[in-house]
């Protein structure tokens, strides 16, 4: 299998191209996704290849984008609408929770919605208000939606193809902070990465560190730094927020007895709380220390002058791991 060295945003484009080339029912839609190739150029070249019928520039109307995609999916197409920033998804929230998430249940399985709602999420790029939120848990609460967040180019293409082929709707959130931060080997051919399975990025015995998306990189850096202090940490990349891979979480925790969760979303009600509850319910007798959460603060996301203080840094992750290990 031949491979290419791609960034995450290039892997998004490659995944879209692969599926559009294989399946005529797959189409892309959103603001500026056509001739301009999208605000981050994730759809660059697709309009030239597939034309207006399958790469559709829409008005600036997120409710209309999502609602139109729902109708297309109900009639057998496989739309992949893009919302330019995840903070712009809120006008489409009614369509997402009232229709997109409920269609299979509402029709008692007669109709499914094979659609993928893509959106770059997260901070760190010095953007204005409404461009930097990490609100994945809004969508994880909705039965009927899958929520996927990749952290590597390989996973990005494989998970996106899996999402497009899924008969049910998927929220595919892309960590824009690391869109072009590094490259990785990505097969040129089609392949899938299963939705609902976490990945152990580094094995260890002293503490389990759970993270996802853009926070995977500072977490791995922190863990490497702590090797010098004799701390052997395991890093688990969650990858799918819903359905959550509880089995991998519990198995890792049973091995180490200590846990740290790292995410940039606010601490209150974040995925760290769900992972902590899972550990309490399924592995309490293995616990050696309180679960430590290293997260964003429970405040509105700050503008660029303060966002470096808001986002979990390598130093904050290191301190969280030390607290869990030294308890």
Automatic annotation (TrEMBL):
GO terms for biological process: organic acid metabolic process; sulfur compound biosynthetic process. InterPro entries: THDP-binding, Transketo_C/PFOR_II, Transketolase-like_Pyr-bd, Transketolase_C. GO terms for molecular function: oxidoreductase activity. This is 2-oxo-3-methylvalerate dehydrogenase E1 component subunit beta. The lineage of its organism: Archaea, Methanobacteriati, Methanobacteriota, Stenosarchaea group, Halobacteria. Its cofactor is thiamine diphosphate. It comes from Haloferax gibbonsii (strain ATCC 33959 / DSM 4427 / JCM 8863 / NBRC 102184 / NCIMB 2188 / Ma 2.38). Keywords: Oxidoreductase, Thiamine pyrophosphate. It holds the Pfam family Transket_pyr. PANTHER family: PYRUVATE DEHYDROGENASE E1 COMPONENT BETA SUBUNIT, PYRUVATE DEHYDROGENASE E1 COMPONENT SUBUNIT BETA. Residues 6-181 form the Transketolase-like pyrimidine-binding domain.
């Amino acid at each position: 299998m031949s491979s290419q060295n791609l960034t995450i945003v290039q892997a998004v484009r490659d995944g879209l191209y692969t599926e559009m080339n294989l399946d005529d029912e797959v189409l892309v839609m959103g603001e500026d996704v056509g001739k301009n190739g999208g605000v981050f150029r994730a759809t660059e070249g697709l309009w030239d290849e597939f034309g207006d019928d399958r790469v559709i520039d829409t008005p600036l109307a997120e409710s209309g984008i999502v609602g139109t995609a729902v109708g297309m999916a109900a009639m057998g197409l496989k739309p992949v609408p893009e919302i330019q920033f995840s903070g712009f998804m809120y006008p489409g929230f009614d369509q997402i929770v009232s229709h997109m998430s409920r269609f299979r249940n509402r029709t008692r399985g007669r109709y499914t919605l094979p659609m993928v709602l893509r959106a770059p999420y997260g901070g760190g790029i010095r953007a204005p208000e409404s461009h930097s939120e990490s609100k994945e848990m809004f969508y994880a609460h909705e039965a009927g939606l899958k929520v996927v967040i990749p952290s590597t180019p390989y996973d990005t293409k494989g998970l996106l193809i899996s999402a497009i082929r899924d008969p049910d709707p998927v929220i595919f959130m892309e960590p824009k902070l690391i869109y072009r931060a590094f490259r990785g080997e990505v097969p040129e051919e089609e392949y899938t990465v299963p939705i609902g399975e976490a990945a152990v990025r580094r094995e260890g015995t002293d503490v389990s560190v759970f993270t996802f998306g853009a926070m995977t990189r500072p977490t791995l850096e922190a863990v490497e730094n702590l090797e010098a202090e004799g701390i052997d940490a395991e890093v688990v990349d969650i990858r799918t927020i819903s359905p959550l891979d509880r089995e991998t979480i519990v198995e890792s925790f049973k091995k180490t007895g200590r846990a740290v969760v790292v995410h940039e979303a606010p601490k209150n009600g974040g995925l760290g709380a769900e992972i902590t509850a899972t550990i309490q319910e399924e592995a309490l007798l293995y616990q050696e220390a309180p679960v430590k959460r290293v997260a964003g603060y429970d405040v509105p996301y700050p503008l660029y002058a303060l966002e470096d203080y808001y986002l979990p840094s390598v130093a904050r992750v290191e301190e969280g791991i030390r607290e869990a290990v030294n308890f």
